[in-house]
Design a protein that fits this description.
Blueprint: H1 10-21, H2 24-31, H3 35-49, E1 54-57, E2 60-63, H4 65-86, E3 99-104, H5 106-123, E4 128-133, H6 140-145, E5 150-153, E6 162-170, E7 172-177, H7 189-194, E8 196-200, H8 208-215, E9 221-226, H9 229-237, E10 242-246, H10 247-254, E11 259-262, E12 271-278, H11 285-296
Parallel strand pairs: 3-4, 3-5, 8-9, 8-10
Antiparallel strand pairs: 1-2, 5-12, 6-12, 7-10, 7-11
Helix pairs in contact: 1-2, 1-4, 2-3
């Protein structure tokens, strides 16, 4: 069935919202429309496309195979139209009221966001930030859907449809409480292996330290795992556990807590944090401005 030549393109916005929310009421709220208006638009879409598109299953609505096949190309087309219309816009930071959704780990939030908020308070006081928790893998689907504007973190693989910008490089240090009974000064490999470790896993199955140890046929004694860097520093300060932490985070907490920091007894090299966004949004003046501000706050690289 062909599409009518006078097809209302506004219906595509409704389709996109319905696919995101899979709920008429929430889609109406997203679009700032009434629920009857969205229901009417769905009926028109069903008639024009010859498919039910969304089928009620219990309290939710499930997309049909036809709807799932249309979702990605329609969303890409809407994003392309929006970017083309915005291409000539001049972004005025001082008067903007824009809201950005950014995904970061608790560690990156601590070392980046205070400086970014301070900078924005002077340059763009009306901008709002919505911070989301960053999972270990790149949240590609949320970026594709526009649920996230950018992410800031460390990623193993980044698909070509995303733009990546180096933010900063980091090294690792060993953090342990002052007056630790097993450590006086530097730590050699034998001492490192005798220590009882806390590991911040971040959802990973194996980190840089354990990768290196495994290659040497060695392993360390991990008694406690947590997804949270911030809690790790406090637990280490109050126990005999030790933790390998990113340098900037370790230095931050060593100034606040009774911690000592020592270098690892082996060389791992740096890891790199990147700003990632959809390449399609490179003409989004507001987003590109924000990326430039974050990039400028990358700090001194620990290379």
């Amino acid at each position: 069935m062909g599409v009518h030549p006078n097809f209302d393109l506004n219906l595509l916005r409704v389709f996109d919202a319905l696919m995101r929310e899979q709920n008429v009421s929430r889609a109406a709220e997203r679009l700032a429309l009434s629920q009857p208006a969205v229901s009417n638009a769905l009926s028109r879409l069903r008639e024009l496309l010859g498919d039910p598109l969304l089928v009620r299953v219990g309290r939710s609505m499930q997309p049909t195979p036809r709807a799932l096949g249309l979702e990605a190309p329609i969303r890409a087309a809407l994003q392309q139209i929006e970017q083309s219309l915005n291409a000539g816009e001049v972004f005025e930071p001082a008067t903007s009221r824009q809201r950005f959704s950014i995904a970061v780990t608790d560690y990156v939030e601590l070392i980046c966001m205070p400086r970014l908020i301070d900078h924005l308070s002077r340059e763009a006081p009306g901008i709002r930030l919505d911070i989301r928790h960053l999972s270990p893998s790149l949240p590609a689907d949320a970026l594709d859907k526009g649920e996230l504007d950018l992410v800031l973190g460390r990623f193993e693989a980044i698909p070509a449809r995303f733009s990546r910008r180096h933010w900063m490089s980091e090294t690792l240090q060993l953090a342990l409480r002052r007056e630790h009974p097993l450590v006086r000064g530097d730590v050699d490999l034998d001492t490192f292996l005798r220590l009882r470790h806390l590991w911040v896993h971040g959802g990973q199955t194996r980190g840089m330290v354990d990768q290196w140890l495994g290659e040497q046929g060695l392993c360390r004694d991990i008694l406690y795992t947590t997804p949270n860097y911030l809690q790790a520093a406090h637990i280490v300060a109050g126990s005999e556990l030790v933790a390998v932490l990113p340098r900037e985070l370790a230095r931050h907490f060593a100034a606040l807590l009774p911690l000592q920091l020592v270098d690892l007894p082996f060389e791992l090299g740096p890891f790199h944090l990147e700003i990632v966004s959809l390449a399609q949004r490179q003409r989004d003046a507001a987003l590109q401005w924000l990326i430039e501000q974050i990039a400028a706050l990358g700090g001194t690289d620990a290379v």
